[in-house]
Design brief:
Elements: E1 3-7, H1 13-24, H2 30-38, E2 42-48, E3 51-60, E4 65-73, H3 82-93, E5 99-103, H4 108-111, E6 121-123
Parallel strand pairs: 4-5, 5-6
Antiparallel strand pairs: 1-2, 2-3, 3-4
Length: about 130
């Protein structure tokens, strides 16, 4: 299996909804998601053939701060290094940005403990 990565593209609506529902385990408002992604600073989709199996979405100004807002991988593709690959692509693209943060419902420090590329600062909502 060869995973390919595509940047800033129009995602297939059914595949995008399926990925969100699989990861977040609840129904999603597709219009809201599609609008959020289209207004993001940057996004990358991970594909197995033509099937969307992962996504990272970045928001921010692209100069002083970027925030990784969503990082999603289909269950069957977890533990294959796709998460790290997506994060490393974001970090490479924004290597001159002084602040890179990741919003997560869980603690990403353990998830990315093996990545020695850059420290991700965590923000959370109250």
């Amino acid at each position: 299996m060869k995973i390919t990565y595509r940047m800033n593209q129009q995602f297939n609506s059914m595949q995008l909804a399926e990925l969100y529902e699989m990861v977040y385990q609840k129904p999603v408002n597709y219009g809201l998601i599609k609008n959020a992604i289209s207004h993001s600073l940057y996004s990358i989709g991970a594909y197995d053939g033509s099937q969307l199996i992962g996504l990272v979405r970045v928001i921010g100004d692209g100069h002083s701060v970027v925030i990784i807002q969503n990082l999603m991988i289909a269950k069957d593709y977890e533990e294959m290094g796709i998460e790290s690959n997506l994060i490393n692509r974001v970090l490479s693209r924004y290597k001159s940005v002084p602040i890179v943060m990741m919003y997560a419902d869980d603690d990403p420090e353990e998830l990315f403990a093996s990545d020695n590329t850059r420290t991700l600062k965590v923000i959370s909502s109250s």
